[in-house]
Amino acid sequence: MTAHIRLAEITDANRDAVIAVRVHPAQERFVASVEASFRHAQARPEANPWLRAAYDGDEPVGFVMLSWNATPRPGVLGPYFLWRLLVGAGRQGRGYGTAILDEVVALLCADGATTLLTSYVPGEGCPEPFYRRYGFVPTGEVDEDGEIVLSLDLGTRP
Predict the structure, then answer these.
(1) 8-state DSSP, 127
(2) Which residue ranges form the domains of the chain, and what is each CATH number?
């Protein structure tokens, strides 16, 4: 199946439906919930948080949060950093994660970005294989939380 994703702003009207999107319980140690992401974004305005719900038709199936053109500084990777990407437990394995990233990459390229960074918590079941298949490569850095930092050259994406 090819996933067709639309990224939408999060408003009072869709907030509860987006918060209800949750990963498998076994993945919760690797990715914070949507609700926790809202708190993290509010606590770090210097990271220029950009949050969007990922929809398939009228149903939210995922969530993405980036630092959008943030000035890199201690605790803020960037300028473009994929801070959070999650796909609901019942929707995984259907191409939604790739489709969400494709949409994000298109928007970043339109904004003039050349590189997208992300990070992951290492461990059994972590998202590293997904990011590596997409084209991210390790930078050799580890952030202050012990997460492995990856980089995607946006010029390599179609």
Answers:
(1) S
(2) 6-156 (3.40.630.30)
